[in-house]
Amino acid sequence: xxxxxxxxNMDLPPFTLGRGMEFGGDAFFVVGCLLGLxxxxxxxxxxxxRGDAWPVSRIVAWVLGVVTVALVMCTKxxxxxxxxFSVHMxxxxxxxxxxxILLLLGGPVxxxxxxxxxxxxxxxxxxELLVALLHSRYMRIITHxxxxxxxxxxxxxxxxxxxxxxxxxxxxAGHIAMMVHFLAVGLVFFWPIMGVDPGPHRPGYVMRxxxxxxxxxxxxxxxxxxxxxxxxxxDTYTNPxxxxxxxxxxxxxxxxGIAWAFSEIPSVVVLIALVFQWYKxxxxxxxxxxxxxxxxxxxxxxxxxxxxxxxxxRGQ
Length: 316
Prior knowledge:
mainly alpha
């Protein structure tokens, strides 16, 4: 029996982690993950062939980010996610709150800007188009917290508590579009907060932390709402296949618990990354100040001491 035209067999055996981790899922994400690894690897090799370094930590972060996408979208989790709210919520939380953080720590935009060749005077190639996009009004809008925070919240409440979710879950194209949307929302939300790439909106570290904590509580509230509900809230998961041996309300409660838990995990990861970035920024600033002092022979300090001496002389 097909589920909403998605072409997926509803008579799945009871869920186990082993069954969920079997290879499967949408070809769209299989191809996308492979392209992500190949293009990133090509760019790193291009840099190294010309003698430029690229941090291993960024490579590891990117690969882990792609792997997390593959784990939830290129396995049988994708099939179970069509009929089990709890499994779908794992997919949603990973692809919108864990994968984007890891992908952004990989610095893909910076890598592309360094690896892509310049088109030459008066011409526009991929590198020039990327630079133009980064400086565009469109990018300033979609990375501003006045846009990203409401979008982050609406992706939960406006989607799950409206007929839109059931409509998207009724077709393969709709399901793919929804998951791509979750990934995109996560990227634009976390990019100004902790991304290592240049961007039009890059506030100070305190403001970044405030932006982070402005969005996270709404995930917790969403999870609690699902956990406390006394009846199924999403039509797609109201009547799970008998072969799964699950109760719709119990599964929904589990989905709420997953959403609530994931509101905490990314917060801790991003906070650690922000503190580390802040420390490294202060360290670089201190090194620049030390080099400047060495170049001018501590002229600033000498001027300040002379100023103090003048004040002392006036007071005598």
